[in-house]
Amino acid sequence: MAIQPIRIFGDPVLRMKAQPVTDFDKELRTLVKDLTETMQDAPGAGLAAPQIGVSLRVFTYHVDGELGHLVNPSLDLTDETQDGGEGCLSLPGLTFDTRRAYGVVAKGFNMYGDPVTIEGTQLLARCIQHETDHLDGIIFIDRLDREQRKAAMKAIREAEWSQDGTAPQVKVSPHATFGRAF
């Protein structure tokens, strides 16, 4: 297991649609362990493989004491929505209210190829949607309305980490009081 560098907004891998996992092998199990360790070290509520530069459909999560992962997810979302603060480890220190489905049923596989179904609401649903978006090359600021997105882009341009394209050397917890980083 190894903590991996987290790719920051502007890295092209974050905008690519990740490839489905076809081999449930030792390499995949190592990837899941690396994702988990990196997510916990950050700390974050979730982390998708593209965020560490691997274009595969895999993510990990740690929400409300539940630690897990999902490979090749497909989602069924509720019609009911929720608004809440959302951040991202690939946009350190930034949080914006984002509308998401209130509930989700996520189907996919574990790292051994066994079918998995995860049902969740509120924060778990938000996290699963956020991480699945990463697998589709979507960053949460893409889901903001025009005015919020404009504010987000201004904050990104002004962020210390965007000045030279690298993350700050100090550890930043982007989910301080009201948002969670995924």
Structure, described:
The chain has 182 residues and is of the alpha+beta class. The chain has a single domain (12-163), classed as Peptide Deformylase, CATH 3.90.45. Helices cover 26% and strands 31% of the residues. It contains four helices and eight strands, in the order αβββββββαααβ. Strands 1-2-3-6-7 form a five-stranded antiparallel beta sheet. Strand 2 (58-63) and strand 3 (66-77) form a beta hairpin. Removes the formyl group from the N-terminal Met of newly synthesized proteins. Requires at least a dipeptide for an efficient rate of reaction. N-terminal L-methionine is a prerequisite for activity but the enzyme has broad specificity at other positions. The active site is at 131. GO terms for molecular function: peptide deformylase activity. It is an enzyme of class 3 (hydrolase).
Task: Sum up the structure in keywords.
Peptide Deformylase; 182 residues; single chain; disordered C terminus; five-stranded antiparallel sheet; 26% helix; peptide deformylase activity; alpha+beta; three-stranded mixed sheet
Give a concise summary.
26% of the residues lie in helices and 31% in strands. With 182 residues, the chain is α+β, with helices and mostly antiparallel strands. Strands 1-2-3-6-7 form a five-stranded antiparallel beta sheet. It has a three-stranded mixed beta sheet with strand order 5-4-8.
